[in-house]
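Lecture 7 notes: from sequence to structure.

We start with a single chain of 415 residues. Read the sequence below before looking at the structure.
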Amino acid sequence: MKTLVNRLFLALIVLLPWHSLIINGYIRKFIPPIVLWKELVVVSLLIIAFTYKGAKINSGRWLIIIATVFLLTAHLLFNSVGLQALPSYRIYMFPIFLSISLFKLGELIDWEKLVRWFVISAFAMAVFTIVQQLFLGEAIYLNAGYPTNTFSEDKLNFTFYIGFGLLQRGAGGFIAPIPYSVYLILALVLLFKYRDIFDAKHYRIIGMVLNISLVLTFTRSTIASYLLFFILPYTKIFTFKTLKILIAFVGIMIVQFFIVPASIQEMEMGTLDTFWSNSTSLEDSSSAGHFESLERGLRIAWENIGTGLGLGTVGSQTAAFSNEALVIESGFLSVIIELGLLSAVFVFLAYPLMHFKKGSISTVILLVYLAVSFLLPLVHYVELSFLILICIEALNKDRTIYVDHRRQPMAGALS
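Now the structure, written as tokens:
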């Protein structure tokens, strides 16, 4: 049983990051049912969890789980819009199933092996993404059926670029740059806590590549969350180490100008200058789109603050089955619009309450998740939700490397 459990979790951490690009984008064309592989794995783990008599889930967690399931099921039965509510119900329920499996089967999991593969997989994806951005171009995403620009089928959706579409943002194997950037943060935090399973040389190389790829996603919200909740609290600010990190980041930005294809070298500096100027003044199209979506979302949420529009009315998953589905960028607002304020608060508090552990660095991930959800509907990214939950429980395991009250300086990957 232990071997089976570890292999199933290993399949999740290795394949989930590639689901949107490889499995859903390419393999699905030949084997359509394969897109349900992750649901099959999670259900298998849930069945094993209920048949395993070892670990027990405490009463507080069971109370949260049962209350959340009851609340969501009540919406499905009495406040939904028919069959198209099932995909939304799945989005909320499957992370709960995985949480139960993590709680029940945690003692069977070889966490160090799992973390090693998590970090190595993220490193491999970061290398692929950097090479793809700078040399291979967008063809791999376009052929996988990723959304294209309304003005040209040869260009990806505007969210994949900065400036005027001259410099592509890193997206890895995910459907957009922001979930990929969150994935990189998960890997970096795991690398920090489990640093002793890597030798010093590999630790520095892996950390450097992950940080470079994170910078090249140009995701302001996640990078800001990473700095605010991880770098600043766990790094002594005015130290030589901090200076080296800052110099390294500046060096990364300078060096990449000399290795990008010649076709964009001339325009890249202007693109980045425009990106920086627009970002600080909040005049770029991305910021304008965020503000417009937030304004629209706030208005609709206020109008439906009681019980919401009903399960199956919001989100990209629902949009695949209904042309009338709303797509709101903010995770908080999208859940309020769908389920109402009370249910939304319960849903968003359920995961922190279930997985919070005092003194654990997993608090960083929970804070990043809640912060980024303000601008991104992370709740609708099932693959990323699974990876976040696995990461949190890996960080919650007792180790002697990190103790919260010591405020140990982060052993930066670029040190």
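Residues 261-270, 400-415 have pLDDT under 50 and may be disordered. Keep this in mind for problem set 3.
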